[in-house]
Design brief:
Strand content: 5-15%
Mean pLDDT: 82
Low-confidence stretches: 67-71
Number of helices: 4
Helix content: 55-70%
Radius of gyration: 21 Å
Strand order of the largest sheet: 2-1-3
Largest sheet: 3 strands, antiparallel
Oligomer: single chain
Number of domains: 2
């Protein structure tokens, strides 16, 4: 499941099955049309329209439970899920970083006076530059997810330490 927010209306969340792709973005825009038809305020906010580039992937953050005393199984599951989610995001960020570096090199060729530029080449670069934007969005939310995972890890250690002490 992938969730999208809109640049013009971040309170609107659109969810579609699958991973972020052009097809999923189109499905989200189809959902948006239904919402716009039902909501006059949203229609006004989106008077200039919305497209694939106006959708921002929303990274799910698993909240850290607040209780200090009770180490329930559900709480442990939630904490582990937050840590694993961080791990997946870290891997995705690393993959995107490698792809973004190659796109950045291609963009730098624009400034090379010896490089021959064509409309086709620039059009291709424009498509590839969307990857840089996606990378920037994931990177921007990465620190929050990491902080959440670190807090989850500390809480999990506390719960497991309490369990160990209770056995003795």
């Amino acid at each position: 499941m992938v969730s999208y927010a809109l640049k013009q209306a971040p309170e609107v969340i659109l969810e579609v099955p699958g991973r972020d792709s052009r097809k999923q973005r189109q499905q989200a825009l189809d959902q948006l049309i239904d919402k716009v038809n039902e909501d006059e305020t949203l229609r006004v906010k989106l008077a200039d329209g919305a497209g694939h580039d106006d959708l921002i992937v929303v990274t799910e953050q698993v909240p850290v439970p607040a209780s200090d005393a009770d180490g329930t199984v559900e709480e442990v599951k939630t904490l582990v899920q937050a840590i694993v989610s961080y791990g997946f995001m870290r891997v995705k960020l690393e993959q995107d970083r490698h792809e973004a570096k190659s796109v950045l090199k291609d963009l730098e060729a624009i400034f090379d006076p010896a490089a021959e530029l064509t409309e086709e080449h620039l059009s291709d670069l424009k498509k590839k530059s969307k990857l840089l934007i996606s990378y920037a969005e994931v990177k921007a939310s990465f620190n929050d997810v990491r902080t959440n995972a670190e807090q989850s890890q500390l809480k999990l250690k506390q719960i497991l330490e309490l369990e160990r002490n209770a056995q003795f």
